[in-house]
Amino acid sequence: MTKLRGWLTVVVSASAMVAVGCGGSSSPRINTIASTGQNVVAISVNGGPDGDYANGLFVSVTVCAPGTSTCQTIPNVLVDTGSSGLRLLSSVMTVSLPQQNGTNGPVAECLPFLSGFTWGPVQTADIQVGGESASSVPIQAINETTFPVPSGCTNFGVPSMDSLQALGANGLLGVGLFAQDCGPACALSGSSNPGLYYQCPSSVCQVTAEPLTQQVQNPVAMFANDNNGVIIELPASSAPAASLSGSLVFGIGTQANNALNAATVYTVDDFGNFTTSYKGQAYSSSFIDSGSNGYFFLDSSTTGIPDCGSASGFYCPSGTQNLSATNQGANGASGTVNFSVGNAETLFANQADFVFGTLGGPGQDFDWGLPFFYGRNVYTAIEGKSTPGGSGPYWAY
């Protein structure tokens, strides 16, 4: 089983948070799943392109050379609410896309996640997902051979994820809270720049200031319509299963099939985080992330939940643990979440199963990964975009 987790960028853009919400308890409940509409595309939890991905949520994405009908549909692209931007492995791409160039040479990017980094050139594509499309979108082509990997990339202290084996997917569709993958910080010159974008005039790539419009963009924010956020709609998963089908719905309150309804809005801080309180401890850098394949959190109680032996990075309690935590947004909205954590080694025993509603493991803050989405409609509102729940960024469920 691939044990990929933590698709959350370390640098995000800042914006104002204004929205309202109410408190309450949130346990998975029967949810209506949209199945048709221009703004709906099918998604599936399955084993991924290599047939070994636990709790991976995948979609098909079509990319075209800008302004042409030269296109390719790429399946098994991981859907990630913890980052922004489309990243595709060059090894699976047959369509040729134009390279983005700066004043001193071709532009490339190193984007760090909690589990690894992706490196490769920034290219431009027309993108279609379901019935929605965006033109001339900067994306990342994941490839370590086009330009040499700079030392600043390896200094993040996480491994490369620039291959199918390491990534576990053909690419990554970041539909997170922010319009760009970095934001204003990467547009700065000097020491304030976090060093994600590079210009590569020769064999040595140098950190560069990258204007907002040239950064890798959240494609949803560039859609002509239904561009203020997404909803991930998945059925509940009461037991391990081989696969699970649902819908990725574009827009919040823009169509009859994407109303906010009674969902509670949880606004976030400048880094896309809110606070989760668990067993008397408040974790202020917590987040909701469909790209993480489990609940990742620190159980600091006296007894604690034991770690696994062979299933490294996951919890292995002797019996399923029924737990609860409370989420609180920057707007003061709060609600209790009931969840369960099972024994990962037991869950992984049947190698034909890839859907695990009780998969969890140790983490520094609280990462509400894909099991949180089972049985819920989870809304991700993009920064600066107007919605019935106020302006993004926020999560709602």
Describe the protein's architecture and organization.
This protein has helices at 151-154, 164-167, 344-347, and strands at residues 18-19, 24-26, 40-46, 56-64, 71-80, 84-89, 101-102, 105-112, 117-129, 132-142, 171-175, 197-199, 206-207, 229-233, 244-250, 265-267, 274-278, 281-288, 295-296, 321-328, 334-341, 360-361, 367-368, 377-381, 390-391, 394-396. It is mostly beta strands and 397 residues long. The protein has an eight-stranded mixed beta sheet with strand order 2-21-20-17-18-23-19-22, with no helix packed on it. The chain has a six-stranded mixed β-barrel with strand order 4-5-11-6-10-9. It is globular.
Structural key phrases:
Cathepsin D, subunit A, domain 1; 2 domains; eight-stranded mixed sheet; 26 strands; 397 residues; six-stranded mixed barrel; globular; 3% helix; mainly beta
Strands, helices and their partners?
Elements: E1 18-19, E2 24-26, E3 40-46, E4 56-64, E5 71-80, E6 84-89, E7 101-102, E8 105-112, E9 117-129, E10 132-142, H1 151-154, H2 164-167, E11 171-175, E12 197-199, E13 206-207, E14 229-233, E15 244-250, E16 265-267, E17 274-278, E18 281-288, E19 295-296, E20 321-328, E21 334-341, H3 344-347, E22 360-361, E23 367-368, E24 377-381, E25 390-391, E26 394-396
Parallel strand pairs: 2-21, 5-11, 6-10, 18-23, 19-22
Antiparallel strand pairs: 1-25, 3-4, 3-15, 4-5, 4-9, 6-11, 7-8, 8-9, 8-12, 9-10, 12-13, 14-15, 14-24, 16-26, 17-18, 17-20, 19-23, 20-21, 24-26
